Amino acid sequence: MNLWEKIRRDLEKELKASYAFIKEGTAVLRKKSKEISKEEEQRYKIIELKTRIQEEMSGLGGRVYELGLKDKNPLQDKKVAAFYNRINKLEMQISKLEGKPKPPAKKAAKKRTTKK
């Protein structure tokens, strides 16, 4: 076997190894790109939900302000309760997407009055 045949054989061997390496690399890249796109989609959904919470809180603040002008208790208003429920549902959706369990919401404590 002369030098040229040896070099040719070695090059063919390395070329086959390179093709195998490239094939494996592209498969890994394909898998990773799918994972990344799923993560980005999930991040987008979380941002969208947080934006909706911000909008709901703005509406809630406006409603509480209106009730404050009328000297009414905002905690007894049905619209305030509806805002609270929508915000709570959105927070639960975010925690589900993030994979974190949300602790149960605290109920408003009733104010005790003492008779004298």
What characteristic shape results from the CA principal axes? rod-shaped
Give the uncertain stretches in residue-range form: 108-113
What series of H and E elements makes up the topology? Answer: HH
Number of β-strand runs: 0
Report the portion of residues in β strands.
under 5%
What is the radius of gyration computed over CA atoms, rounded to a whole number of angstroms? Answer: 31 Å
Counting H and I runs of at least 4 residues, what is the number of helices? 2
**Span from first to last CA?**
113 Å
In percent, how helical is the residue content? over 70%
Q: What's the average pLDDT?
A: 83
Major sheet: none
Structural class: mainly alpha
Walkthrough of the structure:
There is one protein chain. This protein is mainly alpha-helical and about 120 residues long. Helix content is about 75%, strand content about 0%. The chain has two helices and no strands. The protein has helices spanning about 5-70, 80-100. Helix 1 (about 5-70) runs antiparallel to helix 2 (about 80-100). The radius of gyration is 31 Å and the shape is rod-shaped. Residues about 110-115 have low confidence and may be disordered.
